[in-house]
Amino acid sequence: MSKSFLVLFFKKEQKKKDSSFLKKRSKKLLPVAFVVAGAAFCVLLVGAGVRAAPGVLIVPLEREFGWSDATISGAIAINIALYGLMGPFAAALMERFGLRRTVGAAMALLAVGVGLTVLMRHAWQMMLLWGVLVGGGTGMVAMVLGATVANRWFTRGRGLVLGLLTASSATGQLVFLPLLASLAEHHGWRAVSFTMAAAAAAMVGVALLLRDRPSDLDLPPYGGTAIEPYRPSGENPALRALRGLRTGVGNADFWRLSGTFFICGASTNGLIGTHLIPACIDAGIPAVHAAGLLAVMGIFDFFGTTGSGWLTDRVDSRKLLFWYYALRGLSLIYLPFSFGNSLYGLSIFAVFYGLDWIATVPPTVRLAEQAFGRGNAALMFGWIAAAHQLGGAAAAWAAGLVRTETGTYLTAFISAGLACLIAAGLVPFIGIRKKGLLF
């Protein structure tokens, strides 16, 4: 037996042992990976609750300060815009300074910003606090956090985990909105601010459970068999984010994904998340009942978005997005005509629309990963998510202006529905060079 043969034999045996060792370590990762995902879920849940809170404050602030819907919606629009624009910079900060420090700082900023709102007396103070501080803080713990955790910590079932983390924003509405509406009705809007400030402060402690990467613990991602070493670039986070934007600007799929996601944001948190409660109040439905409708949406979106993550691991993401946008468009066109049936018609809308609330996120992240690579997926999705929030900001401001000028949201709801149908028409062209047209 030659020496070279013995060397090859022992190398092969060593490789088998290393593979077996890593598989065992991967199994040990199960609690670590899911502790990280669980901590991220809680942080995203509270961040979503803070983001959704202004929806129950519009009418109380109108009554106490005499501010118009357009003025209050302007502050909310700033909030939503910063919520999105912070995404890519948050992704770069997480790469440079780590999940724990970035998320902990964001939740501390939220606690301070929301807590100070109880002292506001002028509209510019709402612009500064709810708009700039709270918008920036929630933007650092937005959808990009879920994408980062899923991409770093999971190989198997990544879509499902991303679906669960994305669904936490719907669960945030489920948990907080009925409570916040009740607090606003019985104890005043300042009780809402105190409650959400306390919740954000508690999340600073939860952020300590976050870990940056499996390789920091000498472990592979969950479901993987190889440790993925990380070499920090040391690049300035702002420059890293802007370099990603420059890459995206020259990519047709980036514009298609950003365009459809702009419409997604306009038709969800910008329009429905911000204005459904005032629209219900205009129709004679109490705020608590209206918040309950959003909670119903949260329940069904939890299952819809989690199911979307599961489907994303198995079905062409373009097919999923086509149906999501088409069905959402039809439900929004139906919405203005459901108010005549009071809670019955709205309940049908809440169930149907809720299943599709943010089910678009897992397939959009998957398409971003296919277009830009796994290593750049979180950062590039951050810019795509920025388009989502810019759409939300535009819809939040425009719908408030429409109601101020016309006294009704009819035009806003119909326009959003038609825009979703346009988004469904754009989806088949995503990734066309690699896969060809969807139809």
In short:
With 439 residues, the protein is an all-alpha fold. The protein is 81% helix and 0% strand.
* Assembly state (oligomeric): single chain
Radius of gyration: 23 Å
Quickly give the CATH architecture. Up-down Bundle
Write down the CATH class.
Mainly Alpha
Q: Kindly state the percentage of residues in helix.
A: over 70%
Helix/strand order, N-terminal first: HHHHHHHHHHHHHHHHHH
Query: What is the CATH superfamily label?
Result: MFS general substrate transporter like domains
Describe the structure.
It is a single chain. The protein has 18 helices and no strands. It is mainly alpha-helical. The protein has a single domain, classed as MFS general substrate transporter like domains (Growth Hormone, Chain: A), CATH 1.20.1250. Helix 2 packs across helix 11, helix 3 packs antiparallel against helix 4 and helix 12 runs parallel beside helix 14. It is globular. About 5% of the residues have low confidence.
